[in-house]
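Known limitations

Structure tokens in this collection are predictions and should be treated as such. Users comparing against experimental data should check residue numbering before alignment. To illustrate the layout, the record for Heme ABC exporter ATP-binding protein CcmA is reproduced below. The input appears on top and the generated tokens appear beneath it.
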Amino acid sequence: MQACHLVANQIACRRGERLLFRAIDLDLAAGSACHITGPNGIGKTSLIRILGGLLRPFSGTLERTGNAGLLDEKPALDPQLPLGKALDFWAGLDGVDSAAKGTSITRVGMADLLDVPVRFLSTGQKKRAALARLLGQNAAVWLLDEPLNGLDREGVALCESLVAAHCAAGGIAVVASHQPIALPDHVTLNLPEFAA
Ligand SMILES: Nc1ncnc2c1ncn2[C@@H]1O[C@H](COP(=O)(O)OP(=O)(O)OP(=O)(O)O)[C@@H](O)[C@H]1O
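Generated tokens:
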């Protein structure tokens, strides 16, 4: 596992004309996790994207050591391709060998569905496929936006165990979730209502 550290200093986020939140601090060391909570529209996804460098904060600074891997509602797998080929595309970019790719697919219980076009996968199957892609990415900092959406009970337990293993191996996990999720040693960040 790469060395990793994630520090957010006094982060504020503005979308359109609205200031969604401000003065958010986080300091996550290797092996730790954070559960982001808050009502719909408060800015959880926006914060996840800021932490991943996909959205610029309105103010504040971010320091991240270690590659980030994002899992959100879009699986980022070509819908036209069979699952195996869609994952091969990312494995090529991520430098994942076929043995490691096979292990990731087996871990998420998708080994029997490699020939099925991604567009035919169910919501939960797409989420599992996205987890396989995340596993293959070897990113130290996991940014998970509603990772339990669409997963059945077994899938929820699987996701929880993958996060626990990731943190036990020295990774960081930041999880935005409305649903209760069992996380290892973690802090909870409840985004406050903020009237701009
Ligand atoms: N590109 C954009 N331009 C303007 N406003 C946006 C943009 N993207 C999102 N927003 C607004 O920012 C607010 C926060 O959105 P965000 O998706 O971060 O919230 P959330 O807490 O993740 O919500 P939910 O719990 O519903 O997933 C919402 O009011 C949303 O409409």
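For this record: The pocket of adenosine-5'-triphosphate is lined by residues 15-16, 20, 38, 40-46 (CB under 6 Å). Strands lie at 5-15, 18-29, 33-37, 59-65, 68-71, 141-145, 172-176, 186-190. Please report discrepancies through the issue tracker.
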